[in-house]
Amino acid sequence: MTQQNIGIGKCALQLVLANSDEIEGLKSEMNESTFQYCLGKTGSMDLQKVVSAIETAAKRNHMIQEGVYREMHALYHAILEAVQGVTRGQVQLGDVMRTVGLRFAVVRGKPYENEQEGEWIAVALYGTIGAPIRGLEHETAGLGINHI
């Protein structure tokens, strides 16, 4: 999995969609690339908690510099774009009596051969969404990509 063969968004999607048998191979390939990545899980009826979990993971894994506004801003917009996919454009959870259980992947790097295109960040989400009653949820996914 190199950036010449695959885009940053596809890397993020593959990581978040991988099952336990596939994840180790993908991690090895990612470690050989120049992309940085982190993985995590979040679940809530509160959208702020979902956003916060992804931001915290990105900070703890040194994916972004917390004190650099453009990096925080790029991550925030990538997260919101991914959440729009998960929530079908209505960026609401608890207010409309629904909850999510999500896995996430954050990938950062230079996906273009031209160095002047700079760094980009991708956030992929995959999991379930539905009424806050176990067993009544369905699968959902979202992807957000933003330049840094």
UniProtKB/TrEMBL annotation:
GO terms for biological process: L-histidine metabolic process. InterPro entries: Regulatory_HutP, Regulatory_HutP_sf. GO terms for molecular function: RNA binding. This is Hut operon positive regulatory protein. Homohexamer. Belongs to the HutP family. It comes from the Bacteria. It holds the Pfam family HutP. Antiterminator that binds to cis-acting regulatory sequences on the mRNA in the presence of histidine, thereby suppressing transcription termination and activating the hut operon for histidine utilization. Keywords: Activator, Histidine metabolism, RNA-binding, Transcription, Transcription regulation. NCBIfam families: PRK03065.1 (NF002838). SUPFAM superfamilies: Hut operon positive regulatory protein HutP.
